[in-house]
Amino acid sequence: MKIVEQIKQPIAYEMDLFEQKFLLSMSSKVALLNRITHYIVNRKGKQMRPMFVFLVSKMVSNGEVSERTYRGASVIELIHTATLVHDDVVDDSNRRRGFFSVNALWKNKIAVLIGDFLLSKGLLLSIDNNDFDLLKIISIAVREMSEGELLQIEKARKLDITEEVYYEIIRQKTATLIAACCSLGAASIKPKSEHVEIMRKFGELIGMAFQIKDDLFDYGDAKIGKPTGIDIKEQKMTLPLIYVLNGASKKDKKWLINSIKNHNKDTKRVKEVIAFVKNNGGLDYAVSKMKQFQTEALELLKNYPESEYKKSLKLMVNYVIDRKK
Fold first, then answer.
1. pLDDT tens-digit readout, 167-182
2. How far is CA 317 from CA 178, 210, 293, 300, 301, in A?
3. Strands 99-100 and 95-96, how do they pair?
4. What is the largest CA-CA distance in the chain?
5. Which secondary structure element, helix H or strand E, spans residue 315, and what is its range?
6. Is the dihedral of CA 146, 150, 156, 162 positive or negative?
7. Do residues 242 and 248 make contact, with C-beta atoms less than 8 angstroms apart?
């Protein structure tokens, strides 16, 4: 059995029901909107975020979920989908998970409006049901994601990212949404309990490990299906590069910064940068940091009784680290 199927097993019924509820939450009276949202839903990913919501909810409550849990999962998926549609416009990307992106098929104007529509649908789903605590969790996540993106853009211009700033960027950009999923799962069933904050921290740690793993793919083999050196070409400062820059001699530092700023489209030069990072311990350092976040996340699960939901969450933490793409 595939690892994702294994993780999903204890919440298979909830995930099936969630699919139906999620489709309903996206419906509109406008035919064009329905056509586009139908296109999006049929090309969905692994749905890790709703899985986090249901697994956490069941772990903290000995197997219970409520209507609020379904709404929380729908809100997070609506907001996440909205951010992906907007990201493709910002990045001028024509592909998403191997298919044409919304902006590639319907142009940027419609893609931006679709993102806005999904965002408002998510907010209204919470407001109409008085889920104000859930709405606060997700609204903070949206604010942080926007700030993280802008902080990264600002720092990419100067290439002056310290390790601390890098962690802040990935915490806001990536970890905050996974943190929101986990705290939503706890808040949906045990509002105002200590579980909400514990699970938020748990999700944040997984998100940090997840992003470092993503950054490591940029230095991997072509076998994973994702071309290497993309981050360097886009002048994104990731942990392996930051670590090597901090320890490099003045001469090497000058060469690295010059390569990233002025020769980032030169394939040969990008390969040289990748080799330099590998040979100077950049990857080993990033892997050790990633494993540190993984260990801290697993530590937070120790106080919960053994259950199939806890087992799946452990599998999820390890999957984040061990995945091949």
1. 999 999 999 999 999 9
2. 12, 9, 10, 12, 11
3. antiparallel
4. 62
5. helix 308-322
6. negative
7. no
Tokens of 169: 């960027």
Q: Which residues sit opposite 96 in a β-bridge?
A: 99
For a pLDDT cut of 70, what percent of the chain falls above it?
A: 95
d(CA 248, CA 243): 9
Could you tell me which of 135, 321, 130 has the C-alpha nearest to residue 216?
Answer: 321
Encode pLDDT of 68-116 as tens digits. Answer: 999 999 999 888 888 888 777 777 777 666 677 778 778 788 888 888 8
Decide if 182 contacts 50 (C-beta within 8 A): no
Here the tokens at position 240 are 């392996």
Helix axes 267-279, 250-262, angle to 10 degrees: 140
At 146, the amino acid letter reads S
| Token code pair at residue 102 | 């919304």
CA distance 198 to 212: 22
Residue 106 C-beta-side C-alpha neighbours within 13 Å: 19
Report the length, in residues, of the chain: 325
Pairwise CA distance, residues 4 & 52, whole Å? 12
Q: For residue 6, give the 3-state DSSP assignment.
A: helix
**Token pair in block for residue 29:** 């009276």
pTM above 0.85, yes or no: yes
3-state secondary structure of 123: helix
Burial 105-141 (b: 16+ CB within 10 A, else e): ebeeebbbebbebbbebbbebbeeeebebbbebbbeb
- Residues 7 and 46: their CA atoms lie apart, in Å, by 11
E strands within the chain? 95-96, 99-100
